Amino acid sequence: MKVGIIGAGIAGIATAIRLRTLGLEVSIFEANSYLGGKLSEFEVQGYRFDAGPSLFTMPHFVEELFEVAGRNPKDYFDYETLDVITNYFYEDGTKIYAYADTRRFAQEVEEKTGEKKEIVLTFLKKSKEKYELTGEIFLRRSLHTIDSFLNRETLWCILNAYKLDAFRTMNQANQSLFKSPKIVQLFNRYATYNGSDPWQTPATLNIIPHLEFGIGAFFPKKGMFSITSSLARLAKDLGVDFTLNAKVEQIIVKENHSRKKVEGLLVNGEKYDFDMVVSNMDIVNTYQKLLPSEPQPTKILNQPKSSSALIFYWGINREFDELALHNIFFSQNYQQEFEHIFKKKTIYNDPTVYINITSKHKRDDAPPRCENWFTMINVPNNSGQDWDMLIAQSRENIVKKLSRMLKVDLARHIEVEQILDPRSIEAKTSSSQGALYGNSSNNRYAAFLRHANFSPTITNLFFCGGSVHPGGGIPLALSSAKIVGDLVKKRLEVLQK
Ligand code: FAD
């Protein structure tokens, strides 16, 4: 059986590996001249930058792909565990080191803010409980097939649903638990891990801290892009066929006795026959551009999208001992910042600034005595704002804020600059509105309002990636590939009977 995959993002590549191990003949078509979509890299004047994701969690989701293929992960991919996850900086000079060791972290929080360490440990314990209750059901299975619901784990989850804290917002839950506004802010930040707003997203999302503090935060030794490159190498070793600069223009659907089935793909004007098709392209654009004459699931496609990002990739001509791999410089008014992103759809003048510096761990990512700064702020998704004006204003605000907090004239040290904004994210990866994570989770029903991993109307059409179930971010994009693999396996079993 022949499968055509649209897009070589991390989910497309992972799906290719899974389907190839089922014995299918797999071809991937990628519109860009490079692999990885959001998870790609580039180099400029001696500085290497990971273009998109910078935080690596759940490495076992990557490793299991090598195991499924009967290979040793260590032959392809290696990573280290972080002892300090993030350095947090506040305007009043407070610095908090988020140690991976939770007791040490809780002690640090108590010393720096007065927040009792027992409260922090209780919060992290509850975060773990929520993850254990929901992780397998919401993240590793289809939510759209009946057999996902007919089992003991799902029944257990339904009976314990009250523990998920879905009826108040993340901010309400955190404010009612912590006395220190600094710690409320620190834990509210986890809403941004899937592009949501802590003042709207349900407190269920307080499971996210467990991913970092319970399971761990990691750094791939050859940079984030090595997740893409090592999985692509595995796919090629297994015999997956990759074609770059190959923009899919149409999913060809055949109707027979009012039943629809995929027949192939139209790529750069040429027709390719396939028995199955998997789209890793954003779901909104898959329907609107590749299936324009099919019925559109408008309720799902019109769900509000997650936030986007504005990134300045800076080559910095000096080193900063106080900075680590992940650094956060908090806004003084977090609520205002989110109001601007999600309600006013603009950028706040005192944004929280995230700096990721891979040269702290991978020295050759920057010239000697220099650092590669991936400087990012959360911004609204693209709805036609005057981005050139917003980017110019934000650059000035970010440089001023970092200069003030690091006590340095930062502008003098920026020797290289590249910019990524919601428009370029949309143009480079086809993400609807340049959203980083597909739909936002600012709604307690969001998990049920993402598109299924299969088409309900067109046989043998499947969907993977950050814009469909279970959602955005590397671990979830990889989970979507697992779910597609499981669905295809079942379909093959039915066909063989
Ligand atoms: P994509 O990476 O978007 O890949 C889709 C691919 O399909 C692209 O290569 C595109 O070119 C191709 N394509 C689209 N249309 C066509 C077509 N018609 N024909 C052929 N090919 C097509 N996640 C984390 O886990 N941690 C982080 O720290 C993190 N930070 C992020 C920071 C930024 C700036 C961004 C942009 C994202 C971040 N994410 C992070 C999210 C993460 O990158 C994504 O959720 C994940 O990479 C999505 O992978 P994907 O395979 O679903 O989609």
Automatic annotation (TrEMBL):
Gene3D superfamilies: FAD/NAD(P)-binding domain. Pathway: Carotenoid biosynthesis. GO terms for biological process: carotenoid biosynthetic process. Transmembrane segments: none annotated. Residues 10-483 form the Amine oxidase domain. Keywords: Carotenoid biosynthesis, Oxidoreductase. GO terms for molecular function: oxidoreductase activity. This is Phytoene desaturase. It comes from Thermoflexibacter ruber.
